[in-house]
Amino acid sequence: MTRKKLWISFSSYLKSLVIVLFLTLSANLFSQIAPSTMMWYDKSTDQWENALPIGNGRLGGMYFGDVYNDKLQFNEDTYYTGGPYSTVVKGGHKKLAEIRQLLFEGKIVEAHLLFGRYMLGSPVEQMKYQSMGNVVFDYNNKSEISNYRRELDLSTGITGISYEQDGVKYKREIFASYPDQAIFIRLTADKPASISFSCQLQGVRNQAHSNYATDYFMMDLWGDDGLKLRGKSADYLGVEGKLRYEARLKAVNKGGEVYTDVKSLYVKNADEIVLVLVAATNFNSYKDVNADCKSKVKKYLAELEGRDYESIRKDHIIDHQSLFNRVVLQLPVGKNSFEPTDKRMELIQKEPDPALAALFYQFGRYIMIGSSRPGTQPANLQGIWNDKQNPPWDSKYTTNINTEMNYWNVDFGNLSECWE
Question: Which of 192, 199, 292, 294 is buried most deeply by CB count within 10 Å?
Fold first, then answer.
């Protein structure tokens, strides 16, 4: 074989090798970072607005913080201020003829005032959607970390973080299961006896009203492996707070030790730990709050007895994907499509990243699946996610346009069940 033929043959081999390596690396990259369905970040956040949401239509959660102290803020979709009430002003209809006559006479202001007093309803505002509580973690190991990653996989409905610390690979994953009506948090490590932390199940009060608020909560221990939270809604606009709620957190460990003391749950030297969060209110309907929230949470927990985490996780993914996988939107990837999501948001101002538009679209579908399912309340102004007792626009229903806008993507997103 001549030197020229030998070089051509070797050159062809190199080209083939490069192509194979490129395809292999691309496949691995796609498996880790699907540009149209994976949101991921290489740094933590202490801001609720930057947290990654999970939801099963009834329970919503926002997970954020760093590896040393993090938090799961959670909501239940029937927990509002006040209680059942009617805005109808008795006898108001009798003023309609007088209001019309004022309009015919050109007395617009007088008609407006009379309408507001007798026809607009009282109270004019709706009740406020409330945050129910927080699961707050404090981890024992405070040494430096590396290879941090925070992600939300829209295709599975699972969020979490991973990192390395002192030669150990840690992972925390969180999801809200619709089939099992609970939020699950699993912490794992690739070396035994590596997981140690304390956590609290904390309630939330309306700080704007200080100690004079009419809402309250009680934190308590629940046996040797759980925590309990009970409370009631605040009065608002003269409407008595009649919502009652209860949340419970239960720990299931592999290895190590779990115990409760004073107001916290402690985990020491575990191989793996799963935390189960359930919550409910006494809400039956808009005019009936006579349900037993304690019985509800006990029922949710009883139905989980004997279940293992992997089967619960599998059922969650099957349920989630039965809706999410109905639509696939594939747009071209750019050179920035595999960057962290926050960087993609910056870089798209200068260079195209069509796959980011697909991610936006799928995130909208994900939010709908997480905030509105058959049997739940409709999605409000913030879906089901709210960390404030006095949220913007009360995180309520504004039916002049906003509630309708929530559901614009339902049918063309092939999510018709989310209407129910």
Answer: 199
Task: Please report, to the nearest 10 degrees, the dihedral formed by the alpha carbons of residues 300, 301, 302, 305 taken in order.
Answer: 130
pTM: 0.89
pLDDT at 212: 65
Three-class SS state of 74? strand
Distance CA 162, CA 166 (A): 14
Q: How far apart are CA 186 and CA 173, in angstroms?
A: 5
CB 266 within 8 A of CB 253: no
Average pLDDT in the chain:
91
Q: Which amino acid is at 358?
A: A
SS3 content of the chain, % helix, strand, coil (to 5): 30, 30, 40
- For the segment 146-161, the average pLDDT, to the nearest whole number, is 98
**Close Cβ partners of 146 (under 8 Å, ≥ 6 residues apart):** 163, 164, 165
List the single range of 43-47, 82-86, 119-123, 239-243 with lowest mean pLDDT: 119-123
Instruction: Strands of 178-292 (E only): list them.
Output: 182-189, 195-203, 216-221, 226-232, 244-254, 257-261, 264-270, 272-281
Phi, psi of 132 (to 5 degrees): -90, -40
How far apart are alpha carbons 291 and 249 in whole angstroms?
21
| Burial (Cβ within 10 Å: 0-12, 13-18, ≥19) of residue 199 | buried
CB 267 within 8 A of CB 198: yes
